[in-house]
Amino acid sequence: MMTVPDLQRYKRDKKKVIVVTAYDALFTRLLEQAGIEVILVGDSLGVVVQGKPNTLAVTMEDMLYHTKLVAGTAQKSLVIGDMPFMSYQASKEDALRNAGRFLQAGAHAIKLEGGAAMVDRVAAMTEVGIPVIGHLGMTPQSVNQYGGYKVQGKGKDQAQMLLSDAKALEAAGAVAVVLEAMPASLAQNITEEVAIPTIGIGAGPHCDGQVLVLYDLLGMFDEFIPKFVKPYAHLKADALQALRRYKEEVEEGKFPSDAESYQ
Q1: Can you give the residue ranges of every domain in the chain?
Q2: If you ran DSSP here, which 8-state letter would residue 176 be given?
Q3: Residues 185, 16: contact at Cβ < 8 Å?
Q4: 212-226 in b/e burial notation, b at 16+ Cβ within 10 A?
Q5: What are the strands, taking DSSP E only, across 130-228?
Q6: Which helix (H) or strand (E) holds 138?
Q7: Helical segments of 72-151, H only
Q8: pLDDT tens digits, residue range 14-39?
Q9: From 61, 170, 180, 260, the catalytic residue
Q10: pLDDT-derived band of residue 83, with 50, 70 and 90 as boundaries?
Q11: Which residue, 57, 110, 173, 229, shows the most beta carbons closer than 10 Å to its own?
């Protein structure tokens, strides 16, 4: 069973942390069979499952429902619950209460976006035994502030701020930090400067681990494909072919045949 202390051990041992998102029982079983040891129940479900343009409409109820599905199925993996928009930003009390609900739903840790502004939340959670993973760089819940999904940390000042944010999260007790959509050189610098693992997504090869959205990895979601996504399968094409064959066989009277019928 993968645990939070194992994340620190992986960094010390220079072993890569492999993270994939999942939102239901079927894919959780597949991930564990593939040897994936860390599962993120991401608020990305707002886009790839709910069909929204971004993650902002995802609610705590949405996240808790999917977290229960994943955590109730996972037997070996570390399960991380992704705190949705406005479940932690308004107050430290909100953050603590909602983070606790994730652990009650079966998650082993939570993830939240933001740097220095979130330090008091991270410290408060850590004090009561809730493991926290930070998220810096292109933070999707701030998409409107950024004016879209844009690479962060290109300028010297912004790069320095992101490094300071990573150090602040570490000092507050964060057990790891996701680095999204930033120059590979900056992610490498942050990785070398902090003792906690860095999990990259669009942050180059030098992070301590990598995370991808399941539907992107499997080639199921292609409405937009970020530069950092590499599809390892093309399941959308396979699914379309299967569905079209089914439709054709029913129309032509080929399905069900005697083989699929009770005698």
Answers
A1: 4-232, 235-263
A2: E
A3: no
A4: bbbbbbbbbbeeeee
A5: 132-137, 176-180, 198-201, 209-212
A6: none
A7: 92-104, 119-127, 143-146
A8: 999 999 999 999 999 999 999 999 99
A9: 180
A10: very high
A11: 110
